[in-house]
Design brief:
The complex is a heterodimer.
Chain A (H helix, E strand, L loop, with lengths): L6 E4 L3 H12 L4 E4 L30 H17 L2 E4 L2 E9 L2 E8 L7 E7 L1 E4 L3 E3 L12 E3 H11 L6 E7 L3 H10 L3 E7 L10 H5 L2 H16 L4 E3 L1 E8 L3 E9 L5 E10 L2 E6 L1 E3 L2 H5 L4 E3 L5 E3 L12 E3 L9 H18 L8 H24 L15 E3 L4 E2 H9 L5 H8 L12 H8 L18 H5 L4
Parallel strand pairs in A: 1-2, 1-7, 2-3, 7-20, 9-16, 10-11, 10-16, 11-12
Antiparallel strand pairs in A: 4-5, 5-6, 8-17, 13-14, 14-15, 18-19, 21-22
Helix pairs in contact in A: 1-2, 1-8, 3-4, 4-6, 8-9, 10-11
Chain B lengths: L1 E5 L2 E5 L5 H7 L4 E4 L6 E3 L11 E4 L2 E5 L10 E3 L1 H5 L1
The chains are: A alpha/beta, B alpha+beta.
Chain lengths: 471, 84
C-alpha cells in the first residue's frame, strides 16, 4: 500500500477483524497488524493458511461462519490494495506525535530475524485482547501445568494435546470449550474443577434470559462433556500439583463458600497435564502508555474507558474487544463494528451500518455486556484463594519470588503490586508481571481493580532492530 | 514431515506448527531450567505472554518457542542441552 493509511488496527482477533472489515467497507485504507501467523486472534486461532489441510482444527471452533465471512472480506480488500495485512508483526510501542499515531513493530516473518517497521496513521484502534488470569498454587510451575488458553492454543494452532490425562481448574465458562476440545482429540479429561457454584447465576437471571445464544452454546458444551463422561465439579479447586520433572498428580479440594478448602475433603487424582484459568486479563500495554483513562470492570480488572462509540479519552484512539472489558468473541465483533463506525464518522466518511442494522448491533452489544457482567459476578476469584499457598509457593515465575517473600514485603508495609515489586523483584522478570501481577495485586489490594504497571516496551525487541530505525 | 535440529538431533514436525507445538507433539513439556532454583520449565501460556518456553533459534537467544513457527532445517538449542 503506497498511499498513507487512514487507520491502523493492532490485533486481528474477532474485534480487529470486524473493525477492519467495516472500515474497509466504508472506503478507508487500513493497516491490520498482528503477531500471529493467521488472522483470528486467540478465539479463532488457526494454523497458518498453508498448513490447514494437515492440521485440521475446524471442529474445535465456534462462530466459524462469521470468521470465514470476515476473513473473505479482508482477503478481498487486501487483494485490491486497500488493506495492508501485517501478520507476524509484533508491536512494541505506539506513540502519538502531532495528531499522528506512530506504531513501532518488528517483522518476524523470518524469525529469529527481526526487521524494524514503522507505521503511521491519523487514527489507531487497539484490539489486543486478553490472556488467562492465573492464581498461583503449590506446584503450578511444574512442567505439564499450563494455562487453559495454552492448552487450547496448542490444539487450535498446532493440532497437539499437552497430555493424555488432564485435570482442568479455575473458574468461568472457558473451562468448558477447552475440556470439549481436549476430549475431541482423544484426551481423557479426568475432572473440571469450577470454583463457583452454579447458584451464583440465579442472582442475575436477567442477562442470562436476554442472551439465548449463550444458553445454546453452554448447552452444546454440556452435551459434549456428558457424552465424554467428563465430570464438572462445582465449588472445587485444584489446590496443589505434584510431581518431579513433570506433574504426575493434583490435589482437588472441595471449597467452602469463601473459597477455602474444606478440611478432610481433598482428593488426589493422577494426571500428566493440568490446565488452569481464572478468567482473563486484558492486554492494555499500548493503551496505558498512550495515556488512556481506565475504568473498573466487574471481573476485578481495570479496562479502557471508552464511550458508546468505543472512543478512548485520547483523540483519534479507539479500542474494542477485551481491552474494553472481557466479554467474549461475539461482543468483540460488535464492538469492532461500532468502533469502526466511529472512525468512519470522525474521518468524515459515510457510515456502513445504518438504521435497523446499526440499532441491532448496538442492542446486541448492550445485551452481551450485561451478560459479561453477570458472568464476572458469578465467577469471582474466591476471596480465600491464598489459603492454598504455602510460603514456598512460587508466585513470580520469572524471578522465582515465593509467597513467603511477598508476605514479608506486605508485613514491611508494601500495600500494592508496585511496592511488592520494588521490594521483592516480583514482576521484574521476562514477562514483566503479566503472569504474577494480578495475583500479587489480589494478595495486597484485593478491593481495588487490577491496574497493570506501565510497560513502555510491549514486547522485547533486539537492539539490532532498534538500530535499523531511521526515524 | 519436515525436520528441525534440536540440540543436535533431528525433530520431525508438521508444517505450520510452532517450535513449542513440535516439542509437545513428542511428549516434551519442559526444556529449560530457571536461573535460581534450576526448576524445569517449558510451555505454560502458549501464546507468548509468560516467557517460560524460551529457546535459542539459529543462534539467537531469548526466543519464545510458542511464537516461532518451525522451519525445515531450523536449529534450536535448549538450555537443558547447555546444562549437561
Amino acid at each position: 500500500m503506497s498511499d498513507p493509511a487512514d487507520l491502523i488496527i493492532v490485533g486481528a482477533g474477532p474485534a480487529g477483524m470486524a473493525a477492519a472489515a467495516t472500515a474497509l467497507a466504508g472506503g478507508l485504507r487500513v493497516v491490520l497488524v498482528d503477531s500471529g501467523t493467521a488472522v483470528g486472534g486467540q478465539f479463532w486461532r488457526h494454523p497458518p493458511e498453508h498448513a490447514r489441510s494437515v492440521i485440521p482444527t475446524e471442529d474445535l471452533h465456534h462462530g466459524l461462519r462469521e470468521y470465514h465471512d470476515l476473513r473473505e472480506a479482508l482477503a478481498a480488500h487486501a487483494q485490491k490494495g486497500q488493506l495492508d495485512l501485517r501478520l507476524h508483526h509484533h508491536v512494541w510501542s505506539a506513540v502519538r506525535q502531532d495528531d499522528v499515531f506512530v506504531v513501532h513493530a518488528v517483522d518476524r516473518r523470518k524469525a529469529p530475524q527481526e526487521i524494524a517497521v514503522v507505521l503511521r496513521a491519523p487514527r489507531l484502534l487497539v484490539a489486543t485482547g486478553a490472556y488467562d488470569r492465573q492464581l498461583p498454587f503449590p506446584g503450578w510451575d511444574l512442567p505439564g501445568v499450563l494455562t487453559i488458553g495454552g492448552l487450547q492454543a496448542l490444539l487450535k494452532g498446532g493440532g497437539v494435546a499437552a497430555g493424555s490425562r488432564v485435570a482442568l481448574g479455575g473458574t468461568g465458562p472457558f473451562l468448558l470449550p477447552v475440556a470439549a476440545s481436549l476430549a475431541a482429540r482423544g484426551v481423557e479429561v479426568v475432572t473440571v474443577c469450577e470454583a463457583a457454584h452454579p447458584r451464583a447465576w440465579l442472582r442475575h437471571p436477567g442477562p442470562l434470559l436476554r442472551n439465548p445464544g449463550k444458553w445454546a452454546e453452554g448447552a452444546g458444551y454440556a452435551l459434549t462433556l456428558v457424552r465424554h463422561r467428563i465430570p464438572v465439579r462445582p465449588r472445587t479447586a485444584i489446590i496443589r500439583a505434584e510431581g518431579g520433572a513433570r506433574v504426575t498428580s493434583v490435589r482437588v479440594a472441595s471449597l467452602a463458600p469463601d473459597g477455602s478448602p474444606r478440611p478432610g475433603r481433598e482428593r488426589r487424582i493422577e494426571v500428566d497435564a493440568v490446565g488452569v484459568g481464572w478468567g482473563f486479563v486484558p492486554q492494555l500495554d499500548l493503551l496505558i502508555t498512550l495515556g488512556c483513562a481506565l475504568t473498573d470492570s466487574a471481573d476485578g480488572n481495570a479496562v479502557v474507558a471508552a464511550d458508546e462509540g468505543l472512543r478512548t479519552t485520547v483523540p483519534g484512539l479507539y479500542a474494542a474487544g477485551e481491552t474494553c472489558g472481557v466479554g467474549g468473541a461475539a461482543l468483540a465483533v460488535g464492538e469492532g463494528r461500532l468502533a469502526a463506525e466511529s472512525v468512519l464518522a470522525d474521518s468524515g466518511a459515510a457510515p456502513v451500518l445504518r438504521g435497523k442494522r446499526l440499532a441491532a448491533v448496538r442492542s446486541a452489544v448492550a445485551a452481551q455486556r450485561a451478560f459479561a457482567r453477570a458472568l464476572a459476578l458469578a465467577h469471582p476469584i474466591p476471596p480465600a484463594w491464598s489459603s492454598w499457598l504455602t510460603d514456598e509457593t512460587v508466585v513470580c515465575r520469572c524471578e522465582e519470588v515465593t509467597a513467603g517473600v511477598i508476605g514479608t514485603a506486605r508485613a514491611e508495609g508494601a500495600c500494592d503490586h508496585r511496592q511488592v515489586k520494588q521490594l521483592t523483584r516480583a514482576g521484574m522478570g521476562w514477562c514483566q508481571g503479566r503472569m504474577c501481577g494480578p495475583a500479587v495485586h489480589c494478595l495486597t489490594d484485593p478491593k481495588q481493580a487490577y491496574r497493570p504497571a506501565e510497560r513502555l516496551v510491549a514486547t522485547p525487541v533486539t537492539l539490532g532492530a532498534l538500530a535499523d530505525l531511521d526515524t | 514431515m519436515s525436520e528441525l535440529i534440536i540440540d543436535g538431533k533431528p525433530l520431525a514436525f508438521v508444517e505450520g506448527q510452532s517450535v513449542a507445538a513440535a516439542l509437545v507433539a513428542t511428549g516434551r513439556v519442559s526444556w529449560r531450567a530457571t536461573r535460581a532454583g534450576h526448576r524445569p520449565r517449558g510451555v505454560f501460556c502458549g501464546i507468548g505472554v509468560c516467557f517460560d518456553c524460551l529457546v535459542t533459534v539459529d543462534g539467537v537467544g531469548g526466543q519464545r518457542a510458542c511464537l516461532v513457527t518451525a522451519r525445515d532445517g531450523m536449529t534450536v538449542t535448549t538450555e537443558e542441552s547447555t546444562d549437561e
